[in-house]
Amino acid sequence: MVQQLKASATEVHLWFLDLLQSLDMDISILSDDEFDRLNTFKVSEQKDTYLKCRYVLRHLLALYLDQLPSSISLSYNSFGKPYLTDNPLHISFNISHCKHSAVIGITMGSIGVDIECTTGQSLKEASSLFLNDYEMKALELSSDPERALYHVWTQKEAILKANGTGFSHSPHAITGYVTSSVQLQNAQVNHYHLNSFMREDSIVSICTSTPVDIKQLDFSSELLKHKILTSPING
């Protein structure tokens, strides 16, 4: 059996999931509302992404809580952000995905995670929708404005997800770091802290309420078989 995982207020466990890997899934562990959500997807790829993310999330939370995956109870705030209904260990989590990669962040305390593929559509035409005047001026000085745009986008999405509101709250009220150098380490924005880094062709941003260390872990289907736990990669 795999040893119970332990969450920490000073560390974020980032579990990376390759969405192309085959998982032998028993979908009966999902809740009724998850099945309802699953059935709203009309595109098979979106449906598969949601299913794999929720299936893996339940198994990971079960290892932290020492429970069965099917017994994990999730509730949602008024903006749709999920959280643990019964949470004596004060564990928080957040999920993000882009193309064939997904990431699940687990810690104690507020957390927001975003992953964006830099090979996707340009954000230039949409920049006014999320950049404020200060950031617009800073972008003009950037050596790589497209990467800087993606970097700011992931920061803001991570912050708004940590806040629990998503884009129901205006991104213009947040001033991020307009830099194409994707290396933030507990950089402060208001009362939040940001970490960011490149992972292959994607930018990952993590927002927490306190400074944290980041531990990257690659999720393996072997974990579901209770055989091995993948070794951490230094973040």
**What is the number of helices?**
5
CATH architecture of the largest domain: Alpha-Beta Complex
Number of strands: 11
Give the count of structural domains. Answer: 2
Reading the helices and strands in chain order gives EHHEEEEEHHEEEEHE
CATH superfamily of the largest domain: 4'-phosphopantetheinyl transferase domain
Salient structural properties:
alpha+beta; 11 strands; 5 helices; Ribosomal Protein L22, Chain A; 235 residues; 4-stranded antiparallel beta sheet; 5-stranded mixed beta sheet
Explain what this protein looks like in three dimensions.
With 235 residues, the chain is of the alpha+beta class. The protein folds into 2 domains: 114 residues, Alpha-Beta Complex (Ribosomal Protein L22, Chain A); 94 residues, Ribosomal Protein L22, Chain A (Alpha-Beta Complex). The chain is 25% helix and 28% strand. It is built from 5 helices and 11 strands. The strands form 3 sheets. A 5-stranded mixed sheet has the order 4-5-1-10-11, with helices on one face. A 4-stranded antiparallel sheet has the order 6-9-8-7, covered by helices on one side. The chain has a two-stranded antiparallel ribbon with strand order 2-3. Strand 4 and strand 5 form a beta hairpin. The longest helix has 22 residues. It is globular, with a radius of gyration of 18 Å. The chain starts with 10 loop residues before the first strand and ends with a strand.
